[in-house]
Amino acid sequence: RATQPVRLPTVSLAFGWQARLRQLVSQAWFFFVAIVREPVFLTIACVGLIFMILGAWFADSLRYGTAIWPVTGQMLDAIIRRMYLFIVVLTPIYAGELVWRERQLGVAGTTDALPAPTAITLTGKFIAFLGAMLTIELCAVVATLMVQTAKGYHHYELRLYARGILGIAMPTISEIAA
After folding, report:
1. Which residues pair with 66 in a beta bridge?
2. What letters, b where the CB count within 10 A reaches 16 and e where it falls short, cover 154-170?
3. Which pLDDT tens digit goes with each residue over 52-88?
């Protein structure tokens, strides 16, 4: 019986901007998942959320002898003030972890030989870190929405939450991380 030659598919290498974008998204997703699955991150995030819920619960305390509703502005202020401490704690931990990860695993030489440029890898790590911090902030928003609901306030202002998180908290986190 005669053997047939195996036909290998033709491979074309791509180094354009679309390939670089795919590499960036892949790197960012890989490092994001690595961050949010770590027990240290989950522990600090959970402690932060408990602290956040307690702070949000008492954010509507008496002002000049009058109780106020847990309005979105008060809840947003509670998020920005209380989660800032945990962001400051997580930033140096994960900045160092992400930068030195390959060296700790002993694969720094292999990583340097990959076709993705170093700038793509570092940008992916930065985006992953910002994504992890955004995840914490979004969890804090959900926690404050639950506090508002539990206290009988149902006028949720999701646009205000979005503006506060994306316009105040995330630029501050980006500045700390950079």
Report:
1. 63
2. eeeeeeebeebbeeebe
3. 888 888 776 766 667 778 888 888 888 888 888 888 8
